[in-house]
Amino acid sequence: MTRMLASVIDWRELESAIEAGVDIIDLKNPHTGALGALPIESIRNLATRCGGRCPVSATVGDLPADPQQLTQAIGRTAECGVDYVKVGFFSAENLTRCLQAIAGLTHRHKVVAVLFADREPPLERLGEFAASGFRGVMLDTAEKGGGGLLDCMDPNRLERFVSEVRALDMLSGLAGSLRLEDIPQLHSLLPDYLGFRGALCEGRERTAGIAPHRLRAIHDALDQTAPRRERTVPALSRWLKSGAG
Protein backbone atom coordinates (compact mmCIF):
# COMPACT_ATOMS: atom_id res chain seq x y z
CA MET A 1 0.00 0.00 0.00
CA THR A 2 1.51 3.31 -1.07
CA ARG A 3 0.89 6.10 1.39
CA MET A 4 1.23 9.87 1.27
CA LEU A 5 3.86 11.89 3.13
CA ALA A 6 3.44 15.65 3.30
CA SER A 7 6.17 18.01 4.49
CA VAL A 8 4.84 20.82 6.69
CA ILE A 9 6.43 23.81 8.35
CA ASP A 10 3.93 25.00 10.99
CA TRP A 11 0.77 24.09 12.87
CA ARG A 12 -1.56 25.48 10.20
CA GLU A 13 -0.04 23.26 7.54
CA LEU A 14 -0.02 20.33 9.95
CA GLU A 15 -3.75 20.66 10.61
CA SER A 16 -4.51 21.01 6.90
CA ALA A 17 -2.52 17.87 6.14
CA ILE A 18 -4.26 15.84 8.83
CA GLU A 19 -7.66 17.07 7.67
CA ALA A 20 -6.82 16.04 4.10
CA GLY A 21 -6.03 12.50 5.24
CA VAL A 22 -2.25 12.52 4.87
CA ASP A 23 -0.66 9.32 6.16
CA ILE A 24 2.67 10.73 7.43
CA ILE A 25 3.45 14.26 8.56
CA ASP A 26 7.03 15.31 7.80
CA LEU A 27 8.45 18.28 9.70
CA LYS A 28 10.86 20.18 7.48
CA ASN A 29 12.01 23.73 6.74
CA PRO A 30 12.16 24.13 2.93
CA HIS A 31 13.78 27.55 3.31
CA THR A 32 17.04 26.03 4.57
CA GLY A 33 17.79 23.17 2.21
CA ALA A 34 16.60 19.87 0.78
CA LEU A 35 16.27 18.48 4.32
CA GLY A 36 16.16 21.77 6.17
CA ALA A 37 15.47 21.29 9.86
CA LEU A 38 12.95 23.20 11.93
CA PRO A 39 14.08 24.51 15.34
CA ILE A 40 14.01 21.78 17.98
CA GLU A 41 11.31 23.58 19.96
CA SER A 42 9.11 23.79 16.86
CA ILE A 43 9.55 20.07 16.21
CA ARG A 44 8.59 19.29 19.80
CA ASN A 45 5.53 21.56 19.70
CA LEU A 46 4.29 20.20 16.37
CA ALA A 47 4.77 16.58 17.43
CA THR A 48 2.81 17.31 20.59
CA ARG A 49 0.07 19.08 18.65
CA CYS A 50 -0.25 16.12 16.31
CA GLY A 51 -1.01 14.06 19.38
CA GLY A 52 -0.78 10.65 17.75
CA ARG A 53 -3.35 11.42 15.08
CA CYS A 54 -0.76 10.62 12.42
CA PRO A 55 2.84 9.36 12.39
CA VAL A 56 5.39 12.18 12.39
CA SER A 57 8.87 12.32 10.91
CA ALA A 58 11.39 15.15 11.16
CA THR A 59 14.53 16.00 9.25
CA VAL A 60 17.84 16.82 10.94
CA GLY A 61 19.00 19.33 8.33
CA ASP A 62 21.52 19.36 5.49
CA LEU A 63 24.43 18.19 7.62
CA PRO A 64 27.94 17.13 6.57
CA ALA A 65 29.00 13.48 6.70
CA ASP A 66 30.29 13.78 10.24
CA PRO A 67 29.39 10.92 12.62
CA GLN A 68 29.30 13.09 15.72
CA GLN A 69 27.12 15.80 14.17
CA LEU A 70 24.70 13.26 12.74
CA THR A 71 24.30 11.22 15.90
CA GLN A 72 23.81 14.31 18.04
CA ALA A 73 21.19 15.66 15.64
CA ILE A 74 19.37 12.32 15.56
CA GLY A 75 19.28 12.17 19.35
CA ARG A 76 18.01 15.75 19.74
CA THR A 77 15.33 15.28 17.11
CA ALA A 78 14.13 11.91 18.40
CA GLU A 79 13.75 13.34 21.90
CA CYS A 80 11.08 15.69 20.53
CA GLY A 81 8.65 12.77 20.32
CA VAL A 82 8.63 12.16 16.57
CA ASP A 83 8.12 8.66 15.20
CA TYR A 84 10.88 8.79 12.58
CA VAL A 85 14.09 10.81 12.15
CA LYS A 86 15.22 11.44 8.56
CA VAL A 87 18.94 11.75 7.85
CA GLY A 88 20.39 12.78 4.50
CA PHE A 89 23.47 11.24 2.88
CA PHE A 90 24.50 13.54 0.05
CA SER A 91 27.33 11.28 -1.14
CA ALA A 92 29.23 8.15 -0.15
CA GLU A 93 31.81 10.27 1.66
CA ASN A 94 32.60 8.90 5.12
CA LEU A 95 29.58 6.60 4.80
CA THR A 96 31.02 3.63 6.68
CA ARG A 97 31.92 5.67 9.76
CA CYS A 98 28.57 7.46 9.75
CA LEU A 99 26.62 4.20 9.53
CA GLN A 100 28.71 2.65 12.30
CA ALA A 101 27.95 5.60 14.57
CA ILE A 102 24.24 5.71 13.76
CA ALA A 103 23.94 1.94 14.32
CA GLY A 104 24.41 2.68 18.01
CA LEU A 105 21.14 4.63 18.01
CA THR A 106 18.83 2.60 15.81
CA HIS A 107 17.82 0.20 18.59
CA ARG A 108 16.22 3.21 20.34
CA HIS A 109 15.17 5.46 17.47
CA LYS A 110 13.54 4.83 14.09
CA VAL A 111 15.92 6.33 11.56
CA VAL A 112 15.23 6.73 7.84
CA ALA A 113 18.04 7.40 5.38
CA VAL A 114 17.53 9.87 2.55
CA LEU A 115 19.66 9.42 -0.58
CA PHE A 116 19.70 11.85 -3.48
CA ALA A 117 19.07 10.74 -7.04
CA ASP A 118 20.91 13.78 -8.44
CA ARG A 119 24.04 13.18 -6.32
CA GLU A 120 25.18 9.69 -7.38
CA PRO A 121 23.48 7.89 -4.47
CA PRO A 122 25.28 4.80 -3.09
CA LEU A 123 22.46 2.43 -4.03
CA GLU A 124 24.87 -0.51 -4.18
CA ARG A 125 25.27 -0.16 -0.39
CA LEU A 126 21.63 -0.45 0.67
CA GLY A 127 22.47 -3.61 2.58
CA GLU A 128 24.72 -1.59 4.88
CA PHE A 129 21.82 0.66 5.84
CA ALA A 130 19.74 -2.39 6.71
CA ALA A 131 22.59 -3.91 8.71
CA SER A 132 22.92 -0.64 10.64
CA GLY A 133 19.29 -0.82 11.72
CA PHE A 134 17.70 1.82 9.51
CA ARG A 135 13.91 1.48 9.28
CA GLY A 136 13.72 2.82 5.76
CA VAL A 137 15.47 4.45 2.82
CA MET A 138 14.02 7.08 0.54
CA LEU A 139 15.18 8.66 -2.68
CA ASP A 140 14.87 12.44 -2.99
CA THR A 141 16.54 15.22 -4.97
CA ALA A 142 19.02 17.71 -3.53
CA GLU A 143 18.61 20.46 -6.13
CA LYS A 144 14.96 21.45 -6.11
CA GLY A 145 15.24 23.64 -9.19
CA GLY A 146 16.87 21.00 -11.36
CA GLY A 147 13.91 18.81 -12.22
CA GLY A 148 12.07 16.12 -10.34
CA LEU A 149 12.93 12.56 -9.38
CA LEU A 150 11.89 11.15 -12.77
CA ASP A 151 14.24 13.59 -14.47
CA CYS A 152 17.16 12.23 -12.45
CA MET A 153 16.51 8.49 -12.48
CA ASP A 154 14.64 6.26 -14.90
CA PRO A 155 11.62 4.22 -13.75
CA ASN A 156 13.44 0.89 -14.15
CA ARG A 157 16.13 1.95 -11.69
CA LEU A 158 13.52 3.30 -9.30
CA GLU A 159 11.70 -0.01 -9.47
CA ARG A 160 14.90 -1.89 -8.63
CA PHE A 161 15.49 0.47 -5.70
CA VAL A 162 12.01 -0.20 -4.29
CA SER A 163 12.44 -3.96 -4.75
CA GLU A 164 15.88 -4.00 -3.14
CA VAL A 165 14.73 -1.98 -0.13
CA ARG A 166 11.73 -4.29 0.27
CA ALA A 167 13.95 -7.37 0.10
CA LEU A 168 16.06 -5.88 2.90
CA ASP A 169 12.94 -5.52 5.06
CA MET A 170 12.98 -1.72 5.13
CA LEU A 171 10.41 0.88 4.12
CA SER A 172 10.91 2.60 0.76
CA GLY A 173 10.02 6.16 -0.13
CA LEU A 174 10.18 8.27 -3.28
CA ALA A 175 10.22 12.07 -3.24
CA GLY A 176 11.90 14.96 -5.05
CA SER A 177 9.76 17.67 -6.64
CA LEU A 178 7.04 15.13 -7.38
CA ARG A 179 4.06 16.38 -9.37
CA LEU A 180 0.46 15.30 -9.50
CA GLU A 181 1.03 13.82 -12.95
CA ASP A 182 3.91 11.65 -11.63
CA ILE A 183 1.65 9.69 -9.30
CA PRO A 184 0.40 6.95 -11.68
CA GLN A 185 3.90 6.01 -12.84
CA LEU A 186 5.51 6.11 -9.40
CA HIS A 187 2.58 4.45 -7.67
CA SER A 188 2.88 1.47 -10.02
CA LEU A 189 6.32 0.78 -8.51
CA LEU A 190 4.65 0.14 -5.12
CA PRO A 191 6.87 2.22 -2.83
CA ASP A 192 5.67 2.36 0.75
CA TYR A 193 5.19 6.10 0.47
CA LEU A 194 5.43 9.06 -1.88
CA GLY A 195 6.60 12.37 -0.40
CA PHE A 196 5.35 15.81 -1.43
CA ARG A 197 6.06 19.45 -0.67
CA GLY A 198 6.19 21.69 -3.76
CA ALA A 199 3.14 20.08 -5.38
CA LEU A 200 1.14 20.96 -2.27
CA CYS A 201 2.04 24.65 -2.31
CA GLU A 202 0.69 27.69 -4.12
CA GLY A 203 2.38 28.01 -7.49
CA ARG A 204 4.17 24.71 -6.86
CA GLU A 205 6.77 26.73 -4.95
CA ARG A 206 8.04 24.64 -2.02
CA THR A 207 8.76 27.70 0.13
CA ALA A 208 5.21 29.01 -0.32
CA GLY A 209 2.39 27.95 1.98
CA ILE A 210 0.51 24.69 1.51
CA ALA A 211 -2.84 25.05 -0.25
CA PRO A 212 -5.59 22.76 1.13
CA HIS A 213 -7.05 22.12 -2.34
CA ARG A 214 -3.65 20.88 -3.55
CA LEU A 215 -3.38 18.57 -0.56
CA ARG A 216 -6.77 17.07 -1.37
CA ALA A 217 -5.92 16.72 -5.07
CA ILE A 218 -2.73 14.74 -4.33
CA HIS A 219 -4.50 12.59 -1.72
CA ASP A 220 -7.40 11.85 -4.07
CA ALA A 221 -5.03 11.02 -6.93
CA LEU A 222 -3.25 8.45 -4.77
CA ASP A 223 -6.57 6.90 -3.76
CA GLN A 224 -7.77 6.73 -7.36
CA THR A 225 -4.52 5.23 -8.59
CA ALA A 226 -4.44 2.43 -6.01
CA PRO A 227 -5.10 -0.96 -7.64
CA ARG A 228 -8.06 -2.92 -6.35
CA ARG A 229 -5.92 -5.63 -4.82
CA GLU A 230 -2.79 -3.86 -3.70
CA ARG A 231 -0.42 -6.03 -1.69
CA THR A 232 1.07 -4.86 1.61
CA VAL A 233 4.77 -5.60 1.81
CA PRO A 234 6.20 -7.20 4.99
CA ALA A 235 8.01 -4.11 6.29
CA LEU A 236 4.92 -1.94 5.92
CA SER A 237 2.76 -4.62 7.52
CA ARG A 238 4.87 -4.58 10.68
CA TRP A 239 4.94 -0.80 10.60
CA LEU A 240 1.13 -0.70 10.59
CA LYS A 241 0.88 -3.29 13.36
CA SER A 242 3.24 -1.19 15.49
CA GLY A 243 0.63 1.57 15.53
CA ALA A 244 2.51 3.94 13.24
CA GLY A 245 -0.24 3.87 10.61
UniProtKB/TrEMBL annotation:
The lineage of its organism: Bacteria, Pseudomonadati, Pseudomonadota, Gammaproteobacteria, Chromatiales. This is (5-formylfuran-3-yl)methyl phosphate synthase. It catalyses: 2 D-glyceraldehyde 3-phosphate = 4-(hydroxymethyl)-2-furancarboxaldehyde phosphate + phosphate + 2 H2O. Catalyzes the formation of 4-(hydroxymethyl)-2-furancarboxaldehyde phosphate (4-HFC-P) from two molecules of glyceraldehyde-3-P (GA-3-P). The keyword Flavoprotein does not apply. Keywords: Lyase, Schiff base. The keyword Lyase applies. The active site is at K28, K86. InterPro entries: 4HFCP_synth (IPR007565), RibuloseP-bd_barrel (IPR011060). GO terms for molecular function: lyase activity. It holds the Pfam family 4HFCP_synth.
